[in-house]
Amino acid sequence: MTSTSPVSGTTATPADPLVDVDVDVDAAIAAAVSTVRRNIATFGPAYPDDTTVDDRYRQRPAHGGIPLGGNRGWTTSFRTGMLWLAWELTGDDAYRDAALVDAADFDRRVRAEEDLDTHDLGFLYTLSTVAAWRLLGDEQARDASLLAADHLMRRFLEPAGIIQAWGDLSDPAQRGRTIIDSLMNMPLLTWTHEQTGDERFSDAVVRHTAQLREHILREDDSTFHTFYWDAETGEPLRGATEQGAFDESCWARGQAWGIYGFAMNYAVTGNAELLDGARRCAEYFIRHLPADEVPFWDLVYTDGSDAPRDSSAAAIAVCGLLELAKVEKDAARAAEWTARAHSILASLIANYAPANPEDSDALLLHSVYDLPKDNGVDEGTLWGDYFYLEALMRVARPEWRKYW
Hints:
The protein is mostly helical. The protein has a domain at 11-26 and 141-396: Glycosyltransferase (Alpha/alpha barrel), CATH 1.50.10.10. It has 12 helices and 11 strands. Strands 7-8-9 form a 3-stranded antiparallel sheet, with no helix packed on it. α6 packs antiparallel against α7 (199-215). 54% of the residues are buried. Mean pLDDT is 94; it is low at 1-20.
């Protein structure tokens, strides 16, 4: 599956025995960016909520003194990341200008210290202000990114060698807890080390990712969603789930984070165990895909189940497999990862993107946010939309430089 321009009408056919469907990557890009453009008009500077309701995004609810449509939570930057991608794909400055409005608001958020008690500062600032720095050399955005990295480092727990996921650091329910998503938050620290030369940022990445590789990846190559350490002694305690079917199951989105996160952090740490972790996550994920290659929300479910799918996990996995192919040392394996990524993306384009883009505010349908809490089940999600567009970018422009 290859493409060279966002409007060339390139088609792609995945190789047997993968999904047998011809898809037009460039038409998929055109449909996706048209939705991003329409959402600029719909929302302006206000932020949509995490998920759609009946395929339409609503403004993010007011909470804790932050107004309706305000910049809070962990997902707002996925909108910003889509704006940057759309600008790179089209050259239309309307997307850049909207992204810069967001970047300025992320600068305000970190300086006002609003809703920063989360490891997801990596998601939030990598796709907003780090991207603004990478693409435009925006110095204000660079300063905001460095401030966010400093806040993230406040969550680093000695001697456990991990960054705590959520909540106030004094909260006993959250103390010593990290989650597999955290692998995607490490690039903010890697970038900050590159910018400043301060080794404490790179050391945190090395230690945190090694701890996850050792404890969150299970012997059967599946992953825990979350893992606890004793914050005082550093002793590993137990794995659990927050959003999977049960503690010992394998939450599909978490496994996809593992593919992408371990591969990406291997590239910067050189820790061969992380490459091994990415391969193992990929192999388990692929082995547990249903016939159309888009997973159920938890990988315990297989063909014949009526459980909801999670298209967002598939989109993340496509990006992760393509990242893994870039760092894979074995050429044959790299080709396998690439072919599988293309096949999964073909299924997303054919079966999970809206047939008519105007029928939904989402780029990708049939995602799941948190099924145990009945939150965002069979809806569009901001992260599903972002990673779908990133996957399309990676296929259309293999030379594209990621924001992570």
